[in-house]
Amino acid sequence: MRYLDEKAVENIAVGAAFLGTGGGGDPYIGKMMALSAIKEYGPVQLISSEEIAADDFFIPSAMMGAPSVLIEKFPKGDEFLRVFQKLSRYLGIEKIAGTFPMEAGGVNSMIPIVVSASQGIPIVDCDGMGRAFPELQMTTFNLGGVSSTPMAITDEKGNIGISETISNKWTERLARVQTVEMGASSLISIYPSTGRQLKDHGIHGIVTLSEKIGEVICSNESEEAVKLEKLLELIDGVELFQGKMMDVIRKVEGGFNFGEATLEGLNGDAGSSMKICFQNENLIAEKNGEVVTMTPDLICMVDLETLMPVTTEALKYGKRIRVLALPCHEKWQSAEGIKTVGPRYFGYDLDYVPLKELVTKGGRQHV
Amino acid sequence: MYKIGIDVGGTNTDAVIIDENLELVHGVKVPTSGDIQTGIENALHKVMSESEITPSKISHAMLGTTQCTNAIVERKKLSKVGVIRLGYPATASVKPYTAWPEDMVEVLGEKYEVLHGGYEYDGQILSEIDEGEVKTVLSNWQGEIESLAIVGVFSSLKNDQELLVEEWAKEILGEAVPVSCSSQIGSVGLLERENATILNAALDKVMKLTSSGFEKALEKEEIRNAEVYLCQNDGTLMSIEYAKRFPILTIACGPTNSIRGASYLAGIKNAIVLDVGGTTSDLGVLAEGFPRESSLAVDVGGIRTNFRMPDIVSIGLGGGSIVRQVGDHVTIGPDSVGYRITEEALVFGGKQLTTTDIAVRLGISDIGDKSLVADIPIDFAKKAYEEIRKMTEETIDKMKTSSGDVDLILVGGGAIIIPQELEGVANVYHNPHGGVANAIGASIAQISGQYEQIYIYSKLSRQDSMSDAKEKAAYQAKLAGALEETIELVEVEETPLAYHPENATRLRVKVVGKME
Predict the structure, then answer these.
(1) Which of A106, A297, A315, B119 is the most exposed place for a label (fewest CB within 10 A)?
(2) CA neighbours closer than 13 Å in the CB half-sphere of residue A81
(3) Where in the sequence is the domain holding B214, given as residue range(s)?
């Protein structure tokens, strides 16, 4: 067990935005909420999944909806208090032993910190994605057969919906509709879990990993090469490309941001080009027409010099970018995992090939 | 008849006079004074006495000034502000003034309330405004605040709640307490818009002092028939009355005036403008005669805001940048001899090797004593020049929005060091009057109006939405002093919003018109 202070929150916000692979929303407002909560209630407790009791009960906290709405209308701050009360009564549980994040991303890494600070319960250092994904059934809990319901959804006004669904995909469909009615942004608790379920099906150490990534990126290390080296070592990643943003094509369909970004090579990559396809999150990276990384492996765009993560909303012509990639958690590499979040689910006619195999073929291992 | 333009910069205060055909009659430079006012008076006096123009023939006087920026940075002369945010129960998790520098919050008095109100993204009510609640707060603040900031959730979509609170404030606090409504100041993004609105409210006294100071300076030179304007940061003007309501719009008008002045001198409307000073160079983009605006959050005095600002990139390259040999490489800057260039650069008999010395050595420029740089090895000078070229090319490339070649306009005192042949650049324009481009920009400014709102095209057609926005922008322009019949649309920006089910689009339009 350890405490997270303001400094830790700053680092987690940056690291989680990195793992958000271009999606996960604007890190600024999430960070402001978490910093305000810590200022009011003091530092929050972080516990590892080893430290939790198997039969204790944990409820996650997350936001769902449009990042463009969240920058204008953000939560009241005590929404989860009501949700936790209702949900625990519904489930017949006396005590909620903690909360946990659903995904790594600018906003959803911060919401559990707000909940933890205001309710005085710890955050468990695990999530259900190890990165960010656009839909609610895209979790390792889903792969492990954990039901996303009973779930609770609420808004700042006090409306609460508790529902049970026949599948986790239905949870996504129904919650999406309610979210729109609640003003295109809502707070959700899905996949309420026992300690046992977290231990078995969660992705462990995600908060700590985010914090460490943030520490490296925000460090005063002046040598870019040294900083990059440290980052790649930490994430077991590779640098795919250094380039300049040439063009971004975007369209909005069915409530998602689809797009394609084209980069022209710089430095060692001069003469090459890279194309990155995204649906909120970056999904496919192609170098000179060859696929070099594909979902669920992580494709992260960072500023060429500062290594600060770049969200897909912030992409514009002329931006200098490094494209980094790292392998997804092994849970995603199962047949069921690939079916849920692999290239075919997102409509690409590709068989999943892990990053490590692609790298030996065409990419380059750093150093 | 003539116009006078004055630009207050960090180092110099410039003044120019132009005639009816917008031809430059005379331009002067004097050092900027600590109190600003004295520098303005000196520049005005110098340009009037040297040009010998009869004061009664001055029909317009325009001032571009840094006084508001300075007041924020120095935390001086700021008003005590009350902040009412309409949005409860939403948004209570992040209170007003979060992440502000503490000394600034103290100066402004830290009075704020998050009250019931606000709208959803589609214009439905978020929560009903509570008249009693608002009026109680306003009554409690009587005598405690000097200026009021009102900020409603999604007020850029619907601002009637903000306007209602403004009315109640006038009833309770009286006309002496000015009101700033966020819907007239910033765009979507509650915290950033709130910050900009608070700063606008805080600048009330500063702007009153600035405008009366300018009027006093004109009076001293017996300029009594002139229409008086202040420069905004989008390259257009506002009347003094309007400036008193929106003082924050004067922030960063300097770089904007330089871009506009450059456009005028080169006679082109689309280009990249490079303003080369002694220590740094500012790059901006000229689009249809106006500076391109930044799409990112901008920090003002350590406070994050989202009101419009010119998109400017600065690099550590100027006429006084120090040139060094480091191993096999030649480095340029970022340190510089700055305004001491006329003492410290080699060509002026000094001991520091600067970029200006390199330009003289290569015969590109002829200032100072060129025999003093004859010893610089020509290969070294060429290497340094290549480095300057590389820095310039990279920065120009960053500012481009597409991969084609662009035109480049050079202004500023240090412009002589910039190569005329650059990759990615079609033509380079360099005018001898480039040194007073800022003041020229101030003197030729027009009047603008801008409006931004989220429209839902499935409810109000795209065409109707467009004319609604244009009408509201034209109203803003008229308030600022534009002639109605000259108002034309210059900019339309449509941004479809992600996740919204009903084709919601953020529409921003800008109009400009000639001054009355």
Answers:
(1) A315
(2) 11
(3) 1-77+203-251
